[in-house]
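Re: your question from the hallway

Yes, I did run it. Sequences:
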Amino acid sequence: MIHSLFLVNASGDIFLEKHWKSVVSRSVCDYFFEALERATEPENVPPVIPTPHHYLINVLRHRIYFVAVIQSEVPPLFVIEFLHRVVDTFQDYFGVCTEAAIKDNVVVVYELLEEMLDNGFPLATESNILKELIKPPTILRTVVNTITGSTNVGEQLPTGQLSVVPWRRTGVKYTNNEAYFDVIEEIDAIIDKSGSTITAEIQGVIDACVKLTGMPDLTLSFMNPRLLDDVSFHPCVRFKRWEAERILSFIPPDGNFRLLSYHVSSQNLVAIPVYVKHNISFREGSSQGRFELTLGPKQTMGKAVESVLVSSQLPRGVLNANLNPSQGTYTFDPVTKLLSWDVGKINPQKLPSLKGSMSLQAGASKPDENPTINIQFKIQQLAISGLKVNRLDMYGEKYKPFKGIKYMTKAGKFQVRT
Amino acid sequence: MRAPPALSASAPRNGSRDSVSGALRRSASSSSSTAAAAAEMSASSAFIDEKGGSASEPEYGHDPASGGIFSTDYKRHDDLKEMLDSNKDSLKLEAMKRIVAMIARGKNASDLFPAVVKNVACKNIEVKKLVYVYLVRYAEEQQDLALLSISTFQRGLKDPNQLIRASALRVLSSIRVTIIVPIMMLAIKEAASDMSPYVRKTAAHAIPKLHSLDPEQKDQLIEVIEKLLADKTTLVAGSVVMAFEEVCPDRIDLIHKNYRKLCNLLIDVEEWGQVVIINMLTRYARTQFLNPNINESLLEESSEKAFYASDDEEDEDKKAEAATLAKRKPYVMDPDHRLLLRNTKPLLQSRNAAVVMAVAQLYFHLAPKAEVGIIAKALVRLMRSHSEVQYVVLQNVATMTIKRRGMFEPYLKSFYIRSTDPTQIKILKLEVLTNLANETNISTILREFQTYIKSMDKDFVAASIQAIGRCATNIGEVRDTCLNGLVQLLSNRDELVVAESVVVIKKLLQMQPEQHSDIIKHMAKLIDNIQVPMARASILWLIGEYCEHVPKIAPDVLRNMAKTFTNEEDIVKLQIINLAAKLYLTNSKQTKLLTQYVLNLAKYDQNYDIRDRARFIRQLIVPTDKSGALSKYAKKLFLALKPAPVLQSTFKDRDHFQLGSLSHLLNAKAAGYQELPDWPESVPDPSVRNVEVIRLLERVTTLTSIPDWSKCTSRKDRKEKKTEKPFYSDSEGESGPTESADSESDSGSGSESASASDESGSGSESEESREETESEDEEEDEEKEKKRKKRLDKTKAKKPAEESAESEQSSGTEDRKRGRKAVKNQKSASESESESESSESEDESEEESEEESESDTDIRKKKTPISKQPPKQSKKESKKERQEMSLLDLDDFEPAPASAPVTPVNFLSSSLVSDLEGLSLTNNILAPTTIAPSGSIKMYELLHRITGEGLAVEYCFSRQPFSPDPNMVAVQIQFTNNTNSETKNLHIEEPRLQSGMRIREFTEIDVLAAGESVTVVMGIDFCDSTQAANFQLCTHTRKFFVSIQPPVGELMTPVFLTENDFKKEQENLLNGKLMGMNEISEKLMLGEKCVNEHVIVERVTATANLSRVPCGSEKECRFAGKTVSSGCLVLVTVPTKEGGAAQLTVNCEKMLIGTLLVKDIMQALSQ
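Structure:
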């Protein structure tokens, strides 16, 4: 399956290579570099590049290209999904997945890759299994190892590997037993010129941080489970129970994990928490353009809209923008033509606005592109879909855990066309 | 851009390395000097580690390709070699880390191979793992040296720790050295019937490796695959199907029996395995079931046609025909087909995009049309994932939307494009939107498209224009609207947009030019305003092509163009010539002069293409006397009817590739792609998937003791399989290790299993397989131990039931055990072994495993009473066999199991020590009778009297067993005090040993008077290696750094064997796992003095501590011994021939010892 892996940084240097079968010369990456040059934007490199003898499948994460070399038929998603899993694992181990972090921990990276793939076929990708095999590097452990000569490598087969719950190791102990759940929803929307919603959908996840002793068996029930008609689960969730009772029943992995993600599709009515009034116009023959933007809250269930950030890619003809924000700060990059306005919190009494003029190239005709406005925001303590957790129960252990549920709504890909 | 980083980067690297080597030097000197240095040493090693850690950073920026650092490179490798040779694990680890960093950078580290491979047996697990990494990377390049490591892996294969067994197999199978193919084959076969599912999984992984190394093994590998396919653990299922897909994807018959099991296990298999299994089952189902849409597909076809083409009566007929067909052959879905669909459906909820895609393609290819719809939602959900995932999913959705448009229609809006999407995603979304367009939604889609045309991403705008063109061709109602919209775009400033619009308009007009002469007229007017050359050229082509529809305007356009001809771009000029030629042919009256004029202008153009074209056209169209036959056809040449370009999706008919596959994505067959077969015409026999029920009945009696199976099944749907379970558990028993003895004859088919396991105890079993059982028993204990922790209430009395599996793998254990029990019962009559003996030997094995997993020690102690049972059993069994093998029962004198790990013995319990002493006593009694005369013992110097400042120390290998520890070599040390004063407190300090080596010091000598000498004995466990043991010899005043290096011959003790035994053992060694590897044979010429047998025996026994095996033939001398620490047999045969020629054969499982021994004996004999 996966023959080799090359890690390529933003400037096009291969800084790590790993081979699982016989060695593939790194010159195979030249095909990738060609594709990279052809692509105007970094994310426009085709994920699958055929070459005379191999196929290159790459993913771009954290400005690093992970290029896998394939020799024969394999589902491309299989490789892509695996590469993303590799990145997630690195992130999990090193906190960040940057070129520097990988270089600093090159031995751990190698050991991880060795465990994750055998002969190009995934072997152990579950993070708790990996962590028993190879302990994540910490400063303390490095010091201890230097003194005692112990290693970061486990000698026993991780218990999870053979059990029916491979995601959880045995013998977990905590003094504070706690289980926290974050319900995070992102709104993807396209709003048209007149302010009406073209499409809007909600992408929700429930992220959990469970630190419980022993083998707890949790059940999580919702007030309105019917909202969740399109869900994907962590493997720990008992699917049949969900099917029958609409209750999430699971033995949780230890630590942080994503319990489920769901999708409330565009067919449902989605509340849009902000509105935008805009007037961006260019007059024919004039070297000036008008720019006016006002934001306001809408359908927020009384919660404050925070961390608002507006950005827009202005037409190439715009030389500069001279604007006046009623709150927050704005920047305009004359090279990339990117305008961004850090609004902060929306005060319903005094709506934030950004007004002013744009100067165009003298003599140039009016740009015919319309800039779109991208908006980011956060609303605490609100799940915009209306999803609500009813209760969380624990079975199988005697102690009483701390429980907590947090809700948050964020803008996903929220765009306003002008 | 990608130039190597600046050379300056190497400067800090060198600096840091210097400091490291400095520290190294310091540590080396400190060890040879005083005791005070000892403390400093540990500090300095910590310093080294720290340095090494920080050194790796700047080192990184350095590029191997940059020149000028070769000298330092060379030096550095020396450095690393030194570190690897040291006996401190921390140094080795540091060195290995640096080497791995080099490999990661793609730097060549192959010259370190010998230094690295030595450490393959290192006890430090991290060093070991890194050595494995190195080995796998370079073994292919250094095949000969790589062979040295093989024996380590073979030992690892028998390790009680399943992780070590598995990793040994992983590395062994990853070493791409063709010589070891037979070894790999045997290792895989054995691992395939391992107790631990994890090891079996590894075995499954090893199959494709071996297959790619040597495709000739295919048949044997298929047998292993067949066996593993019957495995019922979820852990193995994915991996073995993977192996199946790589080795024998066409052997679909192997799946029949396992089909239902795979379907039922699927939900619990790990996600990667799920993908592989689902893809394979899709192919399987295509060969075994009938097309569920067999009736509908006909209906569908006709209805689709009715939709687009004008409906005929013929269609009605077809419908009727289809209806009758449906009546005639009602379709009933095979229950197995249904099972597959039902069991894969929940996986649409998987978090893994690859699994979702796999299920989606399965439904697309296999499900009845009415059920396919459910996949749409899941696929739409995937679109929120990473852009690469989105890209692949969209490709597949694009293909699906062509076949089944209705499925995605409700999700139309999810494919709307955002300005922030990457271009390639935008273009794919456009494709999907276009495919989804129909009469009802076209207006919304076109409105969307209008927004897209205003985007800043010009590639995307061009694609949008093409999409509009496609919508216009597909949906007649909007064609005019689209055309008008496109015409407006012609005034766009962007060249790309205009060119694309013109091209699309051109295509649209070609379909029905007669209706659109006004658009052509409009475009003719536009030509004054449009500056983009491509667009101008396109318009001119259009006018030329359809000049008959615009007879009045065309000449006028030509007139205008003739005026500006000299200022036009080349492509426009070419089209002007074309236009002129076409007009000349159709309307020569009005345009003759204009054409002449244009051709004349072109004749003197700077561009030779234009000049050539002008010359060619003039010859072709203007009739002259010389003009050839072609001019008659000029009109046909220029004004031939050009077929309208077909505007259709590039994704059309891509679904003949299995969706989700690489081949589908590339729209080209990738290497190794398995065609998705067409549905069969008639139903293949469904009974092939039935598993035998008769076998089930046979085992019912034994099954009664097994507690409820369903306990382990957390998911409801598995319950329905309950009745089948026993069968699987049975086949599991078959794959149990009891049967591994006859792995040669391989019995993959299930029917033999029971008898095979019964027979296994009948004495035909080989030595090795016996050992195998033992070591596995130990491991079994471990597993049992774990279980015991969970269920403490269970008692020893309920033993068989105790195993009874809350997890599936243990069911194997159980069956196997029962099998063994049966054997035991059979044999009980003949059993004559005393209880004490067996418990003694059991203690031994107990002890071994104790050290093996030190962490387990205390647990193990606690559970001794419980775990005693199984090893005892197996031991007895093996004893019995031995009885049959030879009447000469020498109890503990027989070679220790080869699998016994080389482990240090801690003196944990005094009773054990006494036991062991008892053992060595028997040795003592036998030893003198066989050992060579002591006169030949050679003395070696340990400390010269000058360097020792008067103290001279010599040592020899006494060849006496070392009583406190039989695994040690006894070294007799003689101290002589040549000074005038007393030497006090002679003792050993601070041994610096290779990993695994141990020293048992002699008791301190309090006083050695002047001129006196004293002899003491110390024990050293050399771990069967010829590495030196380093230590410090201390007096009350001084310390001396000394080392003892044993000749290979001293690493063994004699073993008394009869001739028959000898032959048997030799055969065992040869037929065992190592095959040829543990026999080393050399021809030699005997030295002049080696005149007779006696001399040869003397020489050989002097060289190596072996005993002679009585032999009938005079021409042949045989010797036997075993290595001291691990007890591997060493067999030496020297047949002599006429004229002093002889052949020396050494059989030993340890290759290194064998090789060295051959060398030494050769030397001794040829002198």
